[in-house]
Write a structure and sequence with these properties.
Protein name: Phosphoribosyl transferase domain protein
CATH class: Alpha Beta
Bound molecules: zinc ion
Family: Belongs to the ComF/GntX family.
Oligomer: single chain
Structural class: alpha/beta
Mean pLDDT: 89
Number of strands: 6
Strand content: 5-15%
Pfam families: Pribosyltran (PF00156)
InterPro entries: ComF/GntX_DNA_util-trans, PRTase-like, PRTase_dom
GO molecular function: transferase activity
Low-confidence stretches: none
Length: 257
């Protein structure tokens, strides 16, 4: 007999005490929740904003040092709202559902059978072979509050039973990315991240996790630092990519603009 997974038991109990909510509209998730992670009213919106295929095109971003970059959604509308609510710390619990959406949308994991349950990777034929998950470190960390990339990394680590490591740090004296334009971001980011000297990444395939991929400057710079520290391969993944929505995915009001 295998030992019970106490983490999972505690998770189910917590989901029963504190019911899970739809990250896209905050509705309580009942038994009719879609894939255990969002409500049936958000089904069309979730589909509309999905980024398929999840691999991000080089035409929209400027990547270097990365094997590839992946995202589950476009950074727009309900997805944007969910991420902002998570990031500002009001609704950090959405991170679990959003990480589960990443597992399903990006890597094709079998969806959770119900709210508070986990997507299953055992069924994955093309199981990702990462040795560890590394979150992009926050520029302005809030004491005691893990950033959204860390929350996503932890959840994906639980789903795939691979360790979360934090070798990256922000080099002091660099500006926050959001204060800069595109060219400034590339320049600034290149020197903004480094790995701690005691980081042991030798020979590792790393999954780098961020919440949003905008220009690609941040994830590329982090990947470069990880490669310098000995990683052999870095793939970046995010909930959403900030790209122009394809025409067929725009709402009618957006098309009129
Ligand atoms: Zn909803």
């Amino acid at each position: 007999m295998t030992a019970p997974d106490w983490g999972y038991v505690a998770e189910r109990a917590a989901a029963w005490l504190y019911p899970r909510r739809c990250p896209f509209c905050d509705a309580l998730l009942g038994p009719d929740a879609v894939q255990g992670t969002f409500c049936s009213s958000c089904k069309e919106e979730e589909e509309r904003l999905s980024h398929r295929p999840p691999r991000l095109p080089d035409t929209e971003h400027h990547f270097y040092a990365l094997h590839s970059a992946l995202a589950a959604y476009y950074y727009a509308d309900a997805v944007r709202e969910a991420i902002l609510l998570c990031k500002r710390g009001y609704h950090p619990w959405y991170a679990r559902e959003l990480a589960d959406r990443m597992a399903v949308r990006i890597w094709g994991a079998a969806p959770a059978p119900g709210p508070g349950m986990r997507p299953k990777n055992e069924l994955l034929l093309d199981m990702p072979l990462y040795h560890c998950i590394v979150p992009v470190p926050p520029h302005q960390p809030m004491p005691g509050v893990p950033g959204l990339p860390m929350l996503l990394a932890r959840r994906l680590g639980i789903l795939w039973k691979i360790p979360v490591e934090t070798p990256l740090y922000v080099v002091r004296g660099t500006q926050a990315q959001k204060e800069l334009d595109r060219a400034g971001r590339m320049q600034n980011a290149r020197k903004a991240y480094a790995c701690r000297t005691d980081a042991d990444l030798g020979g590792k395939r790393v999954l780098l996790v961020d919440d949003i991929i905008t220009t690609g400057a941040t994830v590329s710079a982090c990947a470069l630092a990880l490669l310098k520290a000995g990683a052999v391969d870095v793939t970046a993944a995010a909930i959403a990519a900030d790209e122009e929505l394809p025409k067929e995915k725009r709402t009618s009001t957006e098309n009129e603009k």
